[in-house]
Amino acid sequence: MAQNETATNRILVVDDDAMLIGEYLRCLGKDFEPDSATSTLTDLEKVLFGEETDEKGAAKFEVQSCDQGKIAVEAVREAVKVGNPFSIVFLDIRMPPGIDGIEAAKLIREIDQNVNIVIVTGSVSPEPENLGKEIPPADRIFFFKKPFHAVECRQLAAALCGKWHSDLALRRANDVLEQRVWDRTEALHRLAYYDPVTDLPNRLMLLDELQLLIDDADSPDSNTAVVLLDIERFSFLNETMGYESGTALLSEIGKRLIRTCSDLVGAPQSVVGRFGADEFACLIAGVDDDDALEDIVARIKQSVEEPFLVCSREIFLKASIGVAWHPVHGRDSKTVFRRAEAALHRSMRRLEGRVTWYHSEMEHRAKHKFDMEAELRQAIENGEIVTWFQPQLSLNSGKIAGVEALARWLRPDGTIVAPSDFVPLSEEMGISDMFFESVMRHVCGVIAQWKEESNWDIPVSVNLSAHQLRNHKLVEIIKSILRKEDIDQNLINLELTETVLLEDLTIAMPVLNDLSEYGVGIHIDDFGTGYSSLSYLAELPVKTLKIDQSFIGRLTESATNAKIVQSIIALGKAMELEVVAEGVETEQQLMLVTKFGADLAQGFFIGRPMPAVEFIEWCSIVDQTTSDLPVLPDVLARES
Ligand code: C2E
Ligand code: MG
Ligand code: MG
Asked: Is the minimum distance from the CB of 443 to ligand 1 under 6 angstroms?
């Protein structure tokens, strides 16, 4: 090995003639005095060896000798083994009864590619010009004619040792270069195929790996699933926690996914990668059936939604998931991956972390998205987007104390489209402001009508999306609509989810302060599902917390669930906020939230969202005894 080779001038002389060995030792020895040739020789040696010469400039050789070819071969082997190889082997051609010089040279060459072999012979056989072919490489085999002059031998030794050293230096330089090229190629390969943050395969590599899994499948019908995850609000977390913590979190997610996928029973092979800023992929081969796949996806989702400890902080994540698989959704990696992405985008648009299984309708959807967009634009212009109203019951007075305005798209054919199906689309299209204005106008029109017809002053909550918060004209738009309809600003509340609020607090803060100063109430919607930082509550001009429906839905399932709701209500009260329990579907739930001290309740048990006209009728049915706001039956009165 080049690294172990030391830089001494080691020479092996092999000859069965003891006299000749003596001659070698004399002329290569350090006390050699070759009369008139001395100065020329030492000059040459000085040039060739520099420090490897003695004070007279004569080269220092370390000479070893033997009288048989086989012994020479073993000596070379040993020298290479200990990392102290010979620079030259002088080999006599005939050394009976052992192997001859040519055979010994061939064996030596097999062991040491770099040693200079000098065949020493008294005859012209073998032909010197054939030696290079017989024992390559040709630049390391030489022919030396006996009898030789001592100076000739020393000159040759000096020249070949010099050559050996420069060959060595060249080889080392080449090794360094080769290593550098290799490292660079490896680095480029990693850069092209791996994500530098998590060290996981990137999109390109994932596509290759997916194709390999598909090609290697036991049977053409074996399922290879692509499970794609988008970590919700990662950019927000990254900004608030700091880049380093964000990076650590991404690595942890990657590690957890690898662990989960390698623990999957019945799925022999898996690959985990990162194909976008906060997007991860799990490729799972050999999934038996749909049930098994469902179980796998649930476990993957659960694994990233269990808390992470990053920089001593517990972080809770939610993941949107899209799934497609080979061979059902595509025959090649690109198609399957693309379809899993379509499913993922669908999940992401649904706001909450959900799982979407690819189905052919999605492609159809994508193809007709333009039509749908045009239809929605038209619908807003035609006034097909209306608001329905869902009552909110005051748990203190038992009266209806507010309503939430919920958008509905009433198509001319009579079908009703839910907001989850068109609000995200309006945002994607960049027309959510136009949509918001139309909702606000409708709401203000209804408030004005209620006031005029029934003398009601009932506050209405309107939902705001993240896009609207970024509209720098938002405050102006709201003011101008209220002014135009002559609506008191205290009758309008704006609902924002925690997620929307915290996505960009620096943008949200001044807008909300302006709105609050103007007199509009700020409500936090779906409270408890977002990022578990409470400090923002104290900083924002929040008036009301709306506990997410999921907590109320599970309220009566266990004592722990009840305690959670009780604590959230207590927290809201401690911060002097009004608390609304959302999604109340049963009498028992209503009793409990009343007991825990919630201020308002909203849910199907009290009333479903309904058109404005129906809402008035509903109110009169609920309470026909008074022309004032309706009072619900006694059962709703707060327990003392
Ligand atoms: P949200 O603001 O949390 O509205 C409450 C949702 O829960 C409504 O669904 C409502 O119909 C439903 N809900 C109310 N009580 C119950 C109950 O007891 N049980 C159950 N299972 N559900 C109940 P909806 O109308 O489909 O609205 C869904 C979401 O769409 C809303 O959630 C809101 O985030 C968004 N949204 C609705 N209208 C608008 C709008 O005008 N603008 C914006 N940006 N988003 C809107
Ligand atoms: Mg709401
Ligand atoms: Mg809500």
From this structure: no
